Amino acid sequence: MRICFIGAGALGSTIGGTLARGGAEVWLIDPFQAHVDAINAGGLRVLEVGAETVVKVTACTSATQVGVEADLVIVLVKSYHTRDAIRAAAPIIGPRTVVMSLQNGLGHEDILSEEVGRDRVMAGKTYVGGVLLGPGHVRSGVLGKETIIGELDGRLTERAQLISGTFNRAGILTRLSDNILGTMWDKLFINVAGGGITAVTGLTYGGLYSLPVLEDCALAAISEGIAVAQAAGVKISITDPRRAWTMASAGLPPEFKTSMLQSLQSGNLTEVDYIHGSVVRWGARLNVPTPVNSTLVALVKGIEYARSDYPGRS
Ligand SMILES: NC(=O)C1=CN([C@@H]2O[C@H](COP(=O)(O)OP(=O)(O)OC[C@H]3O[C@@H](n4cnc5c(N)ncnc54)[C@H](OP(=O)(O)O)[C@@H]3O)[C@@H](O)[C@H]2O)C=CC1
Ligand SMILES: CC(C)(CO)C(=O)C(=O)O
Question: Choosing from 78, 125, 187, 257, which is the catalytic residue?
Fold first, then answer.
């Protein structure tokens, strides 16, 4: 199976490297030239549970360099780059190409469907983690972490089985779901638990999980998400906010920083619109109040704006 990753940063490199090590034909596509050059020159260095392996994999900065159609395109750019990224991937998308997002948040499948057609789009969520340590060097958190994929209409198709088989053979624990929408909301609750609060406070998980008033705020944000999903008729498996709160920190050290905090600290935009913002948008549609998530969206956007050249800035 020829698998092309659109976005080969922390997670794209982690999952792409693991699939390549497992024997799949993998292409990593990313504009980060130094990263691409390092991978092509010396392989992708993957640090996993203290041991480093070097994986031979091909990287390039543009889909035009691949020269052949992909069987599977996995989208792992930050959410706000999704539309531009899938448009730029047109040269590798043919009649049989499946396009799948493993990004955090909600709404990517609608963007992808608008660009490539809904029949080509599958959905997925992953609990795998990755950190880019430098060009060509990634810390992988694949071990014991589940990935769930599925068709948008819930059918257990041959193509879905093929993809989950390829992932499992490579060592990525993958399950096929006939309720991928529920899976996507379950994962959203995990991100809602700590994303906005840590972005606003600058706290690592050690701090977040020490202060009861922050736990109350997190539980309130998750509860709003659960109420919205239930109003939308989504079959979620997390119905107790405390479960999402506990799951969000499972296996992570006190010094862990959420991706939303990491984005702010590295001077980038966050995915707040796709995480807390999804709860707010769905809540507005269904008449479910979401004041805690609305406040978190406003505050994170305020922090992003404070770094811009806004009128009156001294
Ligand atoms: N890292 C993790 O542990 C996890 C991440 N996720 C999700 O995965 C997604 C990716 O996150 P992560 O890997 O951390 O992010 P990164 O920022 O590390 O990687 C994204 C990469 O995509 C590149 N990119 C931007 N535009 C394009 C484009 N048009 N074509 C190809 N590549 C492009 C970026 O380059 P540039 O920097 O130049 O913009 C960057 O190198 C997010 O939705 C995140 O929420 C989900 C679970 C865990
Ligand atoms: C690892 C986890 C679940 C932590 O909230 C995450 O997905 C993130 O930080 O974006």
Answer: 187
Query: Which of helix, strand or coil describes residue 160?
Result: helix
Strand order in the sheet with 137-141: 51-55, 44-48, 137-141, 129-134
Please report the ipTM that was assigned to this predicted complex: 0.97
Tokens of 226: 């659960």
For the record, the structure tokens of 193 come out as: 């638990």
Nearest CA to ligand 1 atom 23: 7
Q: Which residue shows structure tokens 């810390």?
A: 139
CA dihedral 62, 66, 72, 77 (to 10 degrees): -10
Q: What is the pLDDT of residues 60-114, one digit of tens each?
A: 999 999 999 999 999 999 999 999 999 999 999 999 999 999 999 999 999 999 9
Round to whole Å and give the CA distance between 29 and 233. Answer: 37
Atom of ligand 1 nearest to the CA of 127: 47
- Does residue 84 sit in helix, strand or coil? helix
Rounded Cα distance, 256 and 188, in Å:
18
The DSSP H or E segment spanning 133 is: strand 129-134
What is the Cα–Cα distance from 194 to 262, expressed in whole angstroms? 12
- Please tell me the distance from the alpha carbon of residue 39 to that of residue 242, in angstroms, as a whole number: 41
Confirm whether 257 is a catalytic residue. no
Return the number of other C-beta atoms located less than 10 Å from residue 39's C-beta: 29
